Amino acid sequence: MIKRDELTKFIYQTIGEGLMTKALEKDEVANGVQFLGGEEVKKVALGVSLNEDWLKEAAKAGAQYCVFHHGFDTRTWKSRFPTFGQKRLRLMVKNNFTIAGFHYTLDAHPTLGNNATIIRELGAEIDQPLYDEWGYTATFNHPQDVKELQQKCARLFSHDILAVLSGPEKVTTIGVVSGAGKPAMAEIAEMEAKGVELYISGETSEWLIHQMKESEINYFCGGHYATEVFGVQELGKSIKKNYQDKLEVEFIDIPNPI
């Protein structure tokens, strides 16, 4: 068991002051503690997205401190909480949870982040920031067969890959932006300027299929949720390594096909 505020301090230090500060400039979504629960923490639960199903599972698991990539959605309409928001709040209060969300920070972190982890698992090395610093370009030491990378991504994400095979059959430079990551004109131009031959993200739009095809950039979509399970688990590993037997750490998986 440890103190809640000690754990918060460790998490902030692990992510880094510079990245936490940058998140305040770049992101309207939570990057930090949103809701304070009990002062004593025996168990940390990790999740991609805060929702009712996840909170119920965390309560069953006996967690006190909850860490997400997508934290509590605080948006209202004319100061009215939607039904889903009320359900989530009731569970948070009833179970005395501390709630922390790390959105930009767990995309952009150069070692713990979703994108950094995907790049590392694919065997490439981070090169330059991409997509207004939400992701990265990366390079392989040797050209990789794009169809083999498609299969590798399917295994890594445990998700079907929507693939637009419109670029070179062998690629050296990739771009990775987990989650939504749907590029607009500026991001497509940035990929062209940085020599991206394969772009990997989670979601797409109808028009993007043709834009990427005509840009002659290979394009993989592996699911918003599926491409963002990595950062929060990497953060959890750091928490467990630091506190060892003082804390239980569990990832609660509530899969989402999108």
UniProtKB/TrEMBL annotation:
Keyword field: Metal-binding
UniProt similarity note: Belongs to the GTP cyclohydrolase I type 2/NIF3 family.
Protein name: NGG1p interacting factor 3 protein, NIF3
Gene3D superfamilies on file: NIF3 (NGG1p interacting factor 3)-like
GO cellular component, one term: cytoplasm
InterPro entries tied to this protein: DUF34/NIF3, DUF34/NIF3_sf
Highest taxon listed in the record's lineage: Bacteria
Residues reported in the UniProt entry to bind a divalent metal cation: 69-70, 107, 224, 228
GO molecular function, one term: metal ion binding
